[in-house]
Here is the input.
Amino acid sequence: CRSFRMKTRGSAKDTFRSGVFLAQFYGTLVTLLFCTCRIIWKLRLRKMDKEKKIRKAMRIAITVVVIFVFCFLPGNVTGVAVFIVRMSYPGDCGTFNVAVQFFSSTVAFTYMNSVLDPVLYCFSSPGFLNTLRLPQLFAWVRKGGPIQTRS
Here is the structure.
């Protein structure tokens, strides 16, 4: 088995690498959840959660957590599966290679986070949306003419 050095079973280096792999996800997830819950709790204590802008900010914070879980959980689960297969079935290259293929296919989700977070931040900002002039752009498409800009 060529991938992930299947034959080195249980070395301190592999255990450390697996621990860091898990800590990267779960440490960040716990931090995100703690901060998001704390922000929402503080805003509700101050009775600020009724304002439209504050509710929008709360939704964005929750969306960041959902995007994080959506993007990183599949890779983390399959990464743990690779580790379990390597430890439980040493030398079973067929099972190991299937687990590695699943892990490799979930890596795309982790990269998707790099795309989704900026999109979320940009489209949640009224300044950005006004700069794009989306209503004017859509009107131009419907009318079939150029966008009129103010001088």
